[in-house]
Amino acid sequence: MGKFARIWQLCTPTNLTIYDNIAFWNAVEKAEGYVVEVDNKEYIVLEGTKFDLSSLNLGAGMHKVSVKALGSVSVADNVIYRDSYYSDELKYNLHTSNEFQYCFNNRCFF
């Protein structure tokens, strides 16, 4: 295998939203998968663009969620795609197991 001629950084995932305890975001071209960060812990998502936050058994209170795209290697294009930066942090306020709200730019939504 020869040397790779180019190294590109992937775009940051956009439109991170939370609905019914599931985080959704827009796909990033050439991403191998995604890393969802919840309260400074990372969770890998290899298929799709959503993550079920209820699988974490989070306690009541405010939680921080962000996502980044995982890089890949394209031998055909002779390119290494580096991980993206993390998206803007979304604050997710879990009241009970069935009630939540999320906050962005100091505005909260139920």
Task: Provide a descriptive summary of the structure in words.
This protein is elongated. It is mostly beta strands and 110 residues long. It has no helices and twelve strands. It has strands at residues 6-9, 17-19, 22-24, 33-38, 41-45, 50-52, 61-70, 72-74, 79-82, 90-94, 100-104, 107-109. Helix content is 0%, strand content 49%. The chain has a domain at 6-57 and 66-87. The strands form three sheets. A six-stranded antiparallel sheet has the order 5-4-7-10-11-12, with no helix packed on it. The protein starts with 5 loop residues before the first strand and ends with a strand.
Brief sketch in words of this structure:
The protein is mainly β and 110 residues long. The chain has no helices and 12 strands.
